[in-house]
Amino acid sequence: MFLIAVFLISIQASSAAEVTSYKWETGGDVTKNTLIKKNIPNSQICMDVIKVAKKGTPVVKFGNGSGPVTLIVSGVHGSELSSQVAAMRLINNLNKLELNKLENGKRIKGTIYVIPFLAPKSTAANVRFFNGKNLNSIANKAGTPTNNIIKFAIDKKIDKVGDFHCTRPGGVPGRNIILGTNIPTGESAKMAKAISKLTGHAYKNEYQAAKSYPGALEDNLNLKGIPAVTCEVKTPHGKIASGSVSASYKQMVAFLKYNKNI
Predict the structure, then answer these.
(1) CA end-to-end span of the chain
(2) pTM for this one?
(3) Would you tell me how many other CB atoms lie within 10 Å of the CB of residue 31?
(4) Could you give the angle at the alpha carbon of 8 between the alpha carbons of 102 and 155, nearest 5°?
């Protein structure tokens, strides 16, 4: 069992989710980032997330029934803002769906975990790295926040993970794209292709996990047998390009639809 100190907010009448903070020395006030503050929904559940993010990495849990268990992560890089805003919008909308039910009367299937800010400290400062380190190159190092995500996924018996990022124009990959791997988890490649079809974004599957990116979160999840994809949208780091939040949100919804959570 993966044991770690947790700070728990009690669920309020306006929330259908469990909002938790994991004390990984990552906490920060994300509202100090004016673009984050300006673009996230003004709702009780978002206020709850902001509150616990000051203590550490916030985790929002929806559903608790039988079915697929999935995890959405954003904010591995603090200055990749569009995916973090999209995650907060997703949290807000999933909460509304759970409170009001879906239009067809159905609710969330299984369990959805959303981590909108992996390192709130970095997000608050609008900096890419956490304590000077690229968290997406050290997921294979014990004790790092990204390695803690892998342990969290194992502990919670997560079936699939989507890691959501932003890529700057002219960078690598430099476009809206879904990334997966063929080996050792072929489901990662299958999922990348399916999300690509649902979104109209490109996809690319590496032949083998951790060969090109040995410390990446997605790759190390796949090495542990947890199918994962990386979803990128194009926008400058530290900024929010027009349409980039909607593109990231579309990727998140496609991830959940493919995995039959919604």
Answers:
(1) 29
(2) 0.93
(3) 16
(4) 80
